[in-house]
Amino acid sequence: MISWWTAKEKNGQATLYSSNITLNKVASVPFEFANRVQVGLDENQNIIIEPISKDRVERGDLNEYNLLEIKIKPSYSRICSTELMNFISKSLKLALSTEPLRFETVWEEENNHLVVLVNKKGKESI
To answer: Where on the phi/psi map is residue 76: left (φ > 0), alpha (ψ -120 to 50), or beta?
Structure first.
């Protein structure tokens, strides 16, 4: 009998700082073709990040001030906005600084967005 080695499935991770959200390579995959992102909070106090395509941006039906640039690198992606991070810090009562806070992420295919599991309540089934 042969026991084959199995690679451990890598988890998506978001790291929050006072000036940005950094997504690891796994969490970045759905954003590879995004032109912008929209960021919000759900009823469970988790961060929601939705990729927005260039075509959707150009339609003009979204408020351009609510759309943020996402910088894609080979091993991570980053959303930089001190204003956004102040909003997240105050809304979720998180002390953000230069020291990172790390959270697991889950891609929700049916809603086409990434959930940063700041508060895992209500997400046990995922």
So the answer is: beta
- In angstroms, the CA 75 to CA 93 distance is 29
Tokens representing residue 14 in the block: 């978001």
Q: How many CA atoms lie within 13 A of 50 on its CB side?
A: 14
Q: CA 19, CA 42: separation in Å to the nearest integer?
A: 21
Q: Is the pTM of this model over 0.70?
A: yes
Band (pLDDT 50/70/90 cuts) for residue 124 is very low
Place of tokens 């026991």: 3
Burial class (CB in 10 A: 0-12, 13-18, 19+), 21: buried
What is d(CA 6, CA 64) in angstroms, rounded to the nearest whole number? 45
